[in-house]
Each structure stands twice: as C-alpha cells, then as structure tokens.
C-alpha cells in the first residue's frame, strides 16, 4: 500500500512538474527539469511524503483589541521538494459558529472528479474543487455534526483525488490529536 502511494505521489509530482516547466518556459524563467519517477523502493517509501507530527493550532487577530480567530491544520509534503500535497485547515466560521474545512490540493488534478474525505472506513464526503492558483487547488466544505464526530473519534482521515491521468491518490492523515486541537479552536 505504501509503495502504491509513493508511485501515485510520484506520478502526481511528475505531471505537476511538467505543468510548472511549461509555465516557467512561458515566463522565460529557467524551469526545473522534470525527472522520471524511479521505481519505488522501501527507502523512497520512507522518505517520499511526510506529515507534520499532528494537528497544529494557530490563532491570529487583526489588532490587539480584536478577538482571536483560531484554526487548526495538518499537511502532507513531498520531503525531497517540500511541495505541499495536501493541507487541511479547519476553522470555526465566526458568523455561524460551525466548523469549516478548507483543503489545499496540488495542481494537475482531474477537476470534475473533485476530492473526497473519508474517516477510517466510514462514508465518503465529496468536495467540489472551487478554484486553483499557483500554490494549488482549493475545496471547502462545512463540517456536518456526523463528520465532526467521526473526526474526533477516528484514527485516520483519508483525502483522495485524481491526477490528470485519472489515477486516484489517497493521502492518509492521522487523527490522534484531532479532538484536543479542535477543543482549542471552538
């Protein structure tokens, strides 16, 4: 399974690198050379993608007198390039006081398929990709009470999407400290 993830991540990186090279050529800037993906080995599986060690809570304020607005996030990056594959950011909407998830996904996606969230082996939540820019593509959704309960008690969140070759890529994200982080932002 892990070697399949590495192969899919490498295929995604290869398609994204090609798109970056085309954009760089248009701007007359030197573009990084796209390298073919080598066959996955155990050493590559250990170092291909990494998650941060849990959910991170960040709070900001527009001024000293304004209330703090807090969000929690976790991301998965390619260790060799530092490219973000998936970033999940959850915040409490100030107007509705309901949690909202914002996902940042890489470029080079099969946009009509969108993205999917799944906690452990539970039901999947389909997300429509709303926009893309130079850092990636974005999808957002309010978090329903049943999904929030699953996130709080679950072991793993799986974020999946398709690359341009219509290969499904699933990124696992641990949920061990989700409940503690969520309690800090609500």
Number of strands: 11
> Runs with pLDDT <50, length 5+?
1-47
Specify the overall morphology: globular
Instruction: Write the element-wise H/E pattern from the N-terminal end onward.
Output: HHEEEEEEEEEHEEH
Output the number of helix runs.
Answer: 4
Q: What structural class do you assign from the helix and strand content?
A: alpha+beta
Write down the domain tally: 1
* Helix content bin: 25-40%
Per DSSP, what share of the residues sits in E-state strands of 2 or more residues? 35-45%
CATH fold name, please?
Immunoglobulin-like
Mean pLDDT: 79
Instruction: Give the N-to-C terminal Cα separation.
Output: 35 Å
Largest sheet: 7 strands, antiparallel
CATH class: Mainly Beta
Under CATH, the homologous superfamily reads: Invasion associated locus B (IalB) protein
Instruction: Evaluate the radius of gyration.
Output: 17 Å
> Architecture in CATH?
Sandwich
Give a verbal description of the structure.
The protein has one domain: Sandwich (Immunoglobulin-like). 26% of the residues lie in helices and 37% in strands. It contains 4 helices and 11 strands; from the N terminus they run H-H-E-E-E-E-E-E-E-E-E-H-E-E-H. The strands form 2 sheets. Strands 1, 2, 3, 4, 5, 8 and 9 form a 7-stranded antiparallel sheet that branches. The longest helix is centred in the first third of the chain and has 25 residues. The N and C termini lie far apart (35 Å). The N terminus is likely disordered.
